[in-house]
Every structure is written in C-alpha cells, then in structure tokens.
Amino acid sequence: MKRKRARVDAPKQPLHTSKPSAIFRPSGGRAYTLSVALPGSVISKASSALAPELKTILSGQIARALAVFCVDEVVVFDDGQAKRHKSKEDPNEDAFNGFTGYSNPDYFLMHILSYLETPPFLRRHLFPMHPDLRFAGSLPSLDMPHHPRSEEWCRYREGVIVHESGMDDGSRKKRGIGDSQVEGRSIVDVGLQRKVSIPAVIPVKTRVTVKLPEESGRSVDQKSQMAASAVEPSEPREVAGYYWGYNVRAAASLSAVFTECTYPEGYDLTFGTSERGIPISSLANPVAMGGNPTVPEFSHMMIAFGGIAGLEVAVEADEELLKMGVSEPKDIFDYWVNLCPGQGSRTIRTEEAVWLGLMGLREIVLSKGKK
Predict the structure, then answer these.
(1) CA separation (Å) from 10 to 7, 13, 157?
(2) How far is residue 100's CA from residue 109's CA, in Å, rounded to a whole number?
(3) Given a cut of 70, is residue 56 above it in pLDDT?
(4) pTM of the predicted protein model
C-alpha cells in the first residue's frame, strides 16, 4: 500500500513591518472640507511643575488627531475660560522667557499646531527659535502627504521662497544662480536636491504650494533647476485628492468661529459635542432622531469641542450670542451629540474628545462629503 507523502508548504515570506504600509493614496479630487473648533483654554488647564512640556504634548496629541482624520481647518477660539498669567505672576514663565503657554494659551496652541503642520524641511525657514517650541522636537511626526522624504516623488510640494528677482550678482554667483534664472522668477526650496523656479516674484520666506512637471521626477540632473508653477494650496486636494494638511485660524469667541468662516458659503453641516447631546450612534437612525431625515450631504463640515466646562461656558462668555438671545449651545448647531454615552470617567478631556468625535463621525465625513 502506497503511503501518501505529507504535503510540505513552501516557507512563508516573513512579514516586514519596519516601514509603514498605510501610505495615503489619492483616489480623485475632493471638494468638501472638514473643520474642527476647540478652545485654547485646554492649554491653560495643563498645570504642574512640568507644565511647559505637558502643554506641548497635549497640543501634539490634538495635531495627531487632525492629521490622522484628514482635517482641513482647525479654529482655536476663546471660550473665556483661559487663565492668562503675566510673567511676574508665574515663575514658570520667567524661566521660559517669551513662553506663551501661560500668558496666551490660544496663541500657544496655534503656534504648536502650525509648527507641526509645516513640512520639517521648511520649519527652519519659517519658524525662528522660540520658547514655545522648546519641546516640540520630542513630538511624534504628523507624516502627512505634504511631508515627503527627499527621495519620494509627488507632483505637488510645499516650498519656501529662498530668492526673488533683485538678488545682487555676488549672491547669485555664490548660490549658483544665473541671470536668466532670476529675472521675473522666484527660487523655491521644496525639499529636493534641486531648487525650483516659478514665474512669479514673491517675497523671500513666503510659503508656497508648487506643481512640478510630470517628467521632472525621473531627471538625473540634480544640479539644474526645475521650472514649476505656483498653485492654490487647495489644488492638491481639489484636483488630485491629496490630504494637504490643515489651516489654523483664531476666533475671539464661539460665534466668531462661524461669522469669520473663510468659506464664502459658510459651514453647511455643524456638530456640537456634549455629554448632554443625543448618542452619536443615533445619527444613522432616523427613528431615534424623532423621524428626522438622515444627515444630509455637505460641502463644509464643522465639529466643535468644548473645554473642561463644555461649550455652555463659551456661550455664556459670548456677547454676540447673548445679544441674539442664544442661551444654549445646542441652538447654534445642526446636531448636538454625545460622543461616548455611558462614559466611565467623570470627564472626557478635550484632546480625548477630538479623537472620539472624529472617529465617531468618520463614516459621515466619507459618505456625505460632496466630491
């Protein structure tokens, strides 16, 4: 009787996980935008002997959430709860001369968020040394599509103007820039070995978005300049579908988040978050929402988060809303939602709520956003 040979499978190739595999790959242009609003007072609440470092870490946690969920705009508003100390009143601020985490927490949060959103190779051009950034180097990278490595190719890139028309002869020779490359053009550093030339005269140290010629990615000449064109910062998202980072905007109050909206048509879908709202899961159930139709499609969506005391205190501190007779924050949003019904902790911190809210509304963003 013949004995069956045991089947021997070929050895499996080991799974290499040393490099990230979840690389953002655009799937077509995206017209809709996602915005987040939160108070700068969350920074003033991070108080301890190590407060400057903790304030930086907290800001980094928020920035990570914005990047992971492809947020296009973040608005830092004043809810009237930020504790603002002068340097003489706070010894910590004396130790970090110019540190704004105590005197102006709104500015501090915006400073850190803007710094982290900027591609690393541009930071030395755009951000001078500052006490606010003392611990920023220890924060994890956001690693967004507009933060490519020097060896990676993308037709769109962020850059900074390093020269404009009018450079003297000595400076041109020192940098290896010929006369024909200067007149009526600006030289841009986009993080590649080659500089980029665009047909526009733009002030030095201005951040620009450039579109590179398709064939330049395979060029072997690493010394010559590439001719490119400056485009709107929104073009990589609208035309190619790239997530291209977030804009940072300040608002003096909760109402200013809406009245100073940078989109001409304003936000057409808004969410306010509170433990007193309806469960976020009920948004997909019209019956649970009192027979209301499901969430509509949108062009510009806004999610607002409160500080430790919630959005209610932001309304109480907002003179414009009080003049209009608004006393409850739920009246200014399309939906008033509870991100974590039955929470085990007495409070959910704002940096935690940002992650919960963006995750909970992720399916609505992807399915209802107008392409």
Answers:
(1) 10, 9, 44
(2) 9
(3) yes
(4) 0.85
